[in-house]
Each structure stands twice: as C-alpha cells, then as structure tokens.
Write a structure and sequence with these properties.
142 residues; mainly alpha; Arc Repressor Mutant, subunit A; 2 strands; 62% helix; globular
Length: 142
C-alpha cells in the first residue's frame, strides 16, 4: 500500500470517528454542531457563510441556523454596515458548548499523541496544516 492509500485510509478512519462522536444528550451533532464551528471561525458569519462552509444549499443552511437559534445557541444580529443583512453570533450557551467541544477534541488529540516528543508533535502539526492547506489544490487547479 502506498503513502496516498495509507493517508486515505487514515482520513476515512478519522471521518468515521467524527461521525460517531457524541456531544451529550440533547446537544446538536453532525452538521447541526458544525454550524457553531463555522460561526465561531468566520469574521462575518451569515447563513451564506454557513452554506458555503458546509457545502449545503441555502435552504438547508437556513434550517440548520434556525435550529441553532431556536436551541439558544445562536442569535441573529443586524449588520451595522448593511441593515438588510443579519450576522450570526454565538450565545453564551453556544460559546460554552463550542468550548466544551474544543476541550474534548484537544483531549482526544493529546491522548492519541501520548508518548510523542514535542518535536514530533510540532512536526505533525506543521505537516497536517500543510496537508489541509493543500486540499483545495494549488491556485487555478480547479
């Protein structure tokens, strides 16, 4: 098996573990939780931002956002630069849920790298970042 096949298998295994993750009873998971990650990371998060980041259509993104708003995890706020547009913002409950997820993820990553030296962790972080940056391919590769 060559390196690319080994990487593919590892990425599939990671995806399966993410799909099975549980955040707790009654808490969102899958795309419903991914909305919170998108809002946390975006400079000016909107429903369109969510749709693009999750590769879903606008109606699906609207439904996911509406569910998070109804659940008290997000709120819509008027864009001060363009009153016709609403921005999305994590509520305190949404921020707490995302922070709990960060702690769980980091704990899982830390356990997976038990016994790794600081140099190995640093090299892995560097290479993984480079790999992720390359997933979209070089500019103009589409």
């Amino acid at each position: 098996m060559d390196e690319v096949e080994r990487i593919e298998r590892a990425m599939i295994a990671i995806r399966r573990r993410q799909t099975r993750r549980t955040l707790g009873a009654g808490e969102p998971s899958g795309q419903a939780f991914d909305v919170l990650d998108v809002v946390e990371d975006a400079a000016e998060p909107t429903v369109s931002t969510v749709a693009s980041a999750l590769a879903v259509d606008q109606p699906r993104a609207s439904k996911l956002v509406a569910t998070a708003v109804a659940g008290g995890l997000l709120r819509r706020v008027a864009d001060q630069a363009d009153g016709r547009r609403s921005l999305l913002e994590l509520t305190e409950a949404g921020k707490a849920l995302v922070e709990q997820a960060h702690l769980r993820r980091r704990g899982a990553f830390d356990r997976a790298m038990t016994g790794w030296s600081a140099r190995e962790r640093d090299e892995f972080a560097r290479l993984l970042g480079r790999f992720v940056d390359g997933l979209d391919g070089p500019p103009g590769a589409d």
